[in-house]
Structures are given as structure tokens and as C-alpha cells.
Specification:
This protein is α/β, with parallel strands linked by helices and 386 residues long. It contains 13 helices and 14 strands. It folds into two domains: 168 residues, VC0802-like (2-Layer Sandwich), CATH 3.30.2130; 202 residues, 3-Layer(aba) Sandwich (Rossmann fold), CATH 3.40.50. It is elongated and about 85 Å long.
């Protein structure tokens, strides 16, 4: 009896001539993330749209696969010879083990897919034959086609078929590393970590930049940022770096000479300029932020437009239409919530006015920026990266 873990994908199957490249990257990512979790390298084989990981099933493997973007679902399964005797025997053994672990289960259905026509019967006929074999051994079970408590999945292939009783939902999306390199402006809140993860789901590799309000904030702020980066990097096959910009003194200098109501937007424009310059050094192709339209004063259409106007790179805002409850849902799902809600001071609030402007203009901001040496501050920030 041979066991393996079956990986399924959805979006990759739509990639036409590039499909094999996406498949290879998905396999590499799965291998690296599992190896990081369990400490050993695993073998992988491919068979007509299915990826098989030859590794024992355990909680560590399940946890690792739950961090791999590009997988639509995955199942621990056994490979059996494609004949009725082997299929019926395997189905009964798998159901027996499942009922030992979950004795309260009462209803089931068999769900067959004929990837290859190795048997003469069609999928519905195979469902009925295997279902009858299971009922013969477990007469207390009931068949439920609409709401079964468990499913016996079968995939018929020519030489050996696959059989499983456990199907786990994957993250979906595209494999990390198939769609460029981004730099995420990471704050200590709920939003920017989820923005980074949303872009990982679209196949990008994400590095991080944090504007650290030292010496006006406590060191716990930086510890929180480092913890968030550690969590996000679990979803990347190769952990990406965090660049920390000491920003408090620059903010203080800006605050001393500018209008209080415009300071937050001025800070954000400076952050974008610095991030663009860093992106050139690390070959990042766009910036990512956690901004959501109208969520705070700096995120109105007018202010977002004026912040983006100083950027030499595209600014991607995957949360632009999200409300806070949706962001919280993803933070809980992806494991950043408990860290994000730890108390900390966002550097954007340093020296900020209680009633910041919601509708800045480019002429206003340019007049304010003429009061301080923009290029000198950019060089100062990049020269102090931690």
C-alpha cells in the first residue's frame, strides 16, 4: 500500500502554454515550505494534472500545505491498483479507519472522477458499486448525496487509482514567485499585513519596509513588526527581508516647519519617495500598502492621489474596497490578528493634528515641502536602514 498527499490546483490549469512553468514553481514552493516545517526534503511526482507528495501525513505536513498559495485543495490518499477487488478493499479499510477516529459519523457518499477510462463503468456506476461495498461492511451508515458527513473520493486512472476520505481546502491563487517582486509598506496595524498576503496570493514575492518612529516610540513596536514579518514569511518559500527606516527625527523636522493638518499626508509622501528609492536597490517592481478608501483622513481620493503622485512606481492597494470587518476576517484566517492588535504607536500619528485635512491639494503640499530638504531627508533615511 502506497500513501501520498494529493495536491489539486484550479487557476494554474487555465494557464495554457505556461502551465508547466506554474506547476514547477508550485512543486518547488511546496517542497521548500514542507522541508522548512518538517526538516527533510520530500519527493514529488506529477501525473496528468495532479501533484503527488510522497510523504507521510501528519499535522506538520497539513500545516505546511496550508501556507502554500496555488493549491486549491489537498488530500492524504492511498494509491491502489485499478481493479474492483483492490478498490473495494481499500475503500472499506479507509472508512474503517475514519470511523475509528470519528465514531459519530453516520452518512457518506462516494464521489468518483474518471480521469482515465480504465474501468468500463461510468462515474455514477462506480459510485454505486463502491457505496454498496461500504454499506455491506458498515450497514449502520446511510448514503446522503446532498449532505454527507464524509465523502469517499476516488480518482480512476489506468495503472493505479487514488482514494481518500479527507479533503482540505487550500489557499488558492498562484504560486509565490510567479508574478514579480513587491515592497510592502508595513505598519503595525491590521491592514498592511493582509495587503502583503493578498499580493502573495497573486503570485508575487514580497519584501517589507517599516518606518520606525524612533526615538519617540518604544522598542516593542519594532518587535511587533518583526513578529508580523515572521508570520507573513511562512507563506513564502524563501523568507524576504525587513528594511527598517528610523523615521522619527525626520518626522520631527517636518513637523517643525509645516502645517499641522497636512503633516500625515506629507509623511506618507516622504515614505513613498524613500520606498521607491529602496525598491531600485532591491529590484522591487511596485509598492504595496494596506490603504482602504475612506478608512482614515489620509485615505480619501484626494489624499491618496496626492500621495501616489510622488511615486515613481505603481502603488498596489489590494484592500482598497475592504471594510474593517473583512480585513479582520482575513487577519484571523491567516494568523496575523493577535499580533496586529498588540498595542503600539503608528509613526504616522507622531506630531499629527487631531483634525487632519481630508482634501489636500498638490499646490498646498508642494508649498509645504518647499520648507524642508526632501532629497536630503531621503538620503538620510536610506543611509540609516536597520
Amino acid at each position: 500500500m502506497e500513501r501520498a498527499v494529493l495536491l489539486r490546483y484550479h487557476e494554474i490549469a487555465l494557464k495554457g502554454q505556461n502551465r508547466k512553468w506554474f506547476e514547477r514553481r508550485l512543486i518547488q514552493n511546496a517542497q521548500k515550505i514542507i522541508q522548512r516545517e518538517i526538516g527533510t526534503k520530500i519527493n514529488v511526482t506529477q501525473k496528468r494534472g495532479r501533484i503527488l507528495l510522497h510523504t507521510p501525513w501528519n499535522p506538520q505536513v497539513k500545516t505546511a500545505l496550508s501556507h502554500v498559495f496555488g493549491i486549491s485543495s489537498f488530500s492524504p490518499m492511498r494509491m491502489v491498483e485499478t481493479n474492483w477487488l483492490s478498490l473495494e478493499k481499500a475503500a472499506n479499510e479507509e472508512v474503517s479507519q475514519l470511523l475509528k477516529d470519528h465514531p459519530s459519523l453516520n452518512s457518506f457518499r462516494v464521489l468518483t472522477r474518471r480521469s482515465e477510462k480504465a474501468l468500463g463503468e461510468n462515474s455514477m456506476e462506480i459510485d454505486k458499486i463502491l457505496g454498496a461495498a461500504i454499506l455491506k461492511n458498515f450497514p449502520f451508515l446511510k448514503v446522503s448525496l446532498k449532505n454527507p458527513e464524509f465523502r469517499v473520493g476516488v480518482e480512476i486512472r489506468n495503472e493505479s487509482s487514488y482514494l481518500w476520505t479527507d479533503k482540505n481546502e487550500g489557499l488558492g491563487g498562484l504560486p509565490v514567485g510567479t508574478n514579480g517582486h513587491l515592497l510592502c509598506l508595513l505598519s503595525g496595524g491590521l491592514d498592511s499585513p493582509i495587503a502583503a498576503l493578498q499580493m502573495l496570493k497573486r503570485g508575487t514575492q514580497v519584501s517589507f519596509i517599516h518606518f520606525y518612529g524612533t526615538p519617540f516610540v518604544e522598542s516593542q513596536v519594532l518587535e511587533k513588526i518583526e513578529d508580523l514579518v515572521t508570520i507573513i514569511n511562512r507563506y513564502q518559500p524563501k523568507a524576504q527581508p525587513l528594511y527598517v527606516i528610523p523615521f522619527g527625527k525626520i518626522q520631527e523636522k517636518i513637523a517643525l516647519v509645516t502645517h499641522p493638518r497636512l503633516r500625515t499626508v506629507l509623511y506618507r509622501r516622504m515614505m513613498v519617495r524613500i520606498s521607491c528609492e529602496l525598491s531600485k536597490k532591491i529590484n522591487a517592481q511596485a509598492l504595496v500598502t494596506g490603504e482602504s478608501l475612506g478608512q482614515v483622513a489620509s485615505q480619501t481620493i484626494e489624499n491618496l492621489s496626492n500621495i501616489e503622485s510622488v511615486s515613481s512606481l505603481p502603488i498596489l492597494r489590494p484592500l482598497i474596497g475592504f471594510d474593517k470587518s473583512e480585513i479582520i476576517k482575513y487577519a484571523e484566517k491567516w494568523g496575523t490578528y493577535e499580533t496586529s492588535i498588540r498595542p503600539s504607536l503608528d509613526c504616522c500619528t507622531l506630531f499629527a493634528d487631531r483634525h487632519p485635512a481630508t482634501k489636500s491639494t498638490s499646490s498646498q503640499l508642494e508649498r509645504e515641502e518647499a520648507r524642508f530638504p526632501v532629497e536630503e531627508f531621503i538620503a538620510e533615511a536610506l543611509g540609516q536602514i536597520l
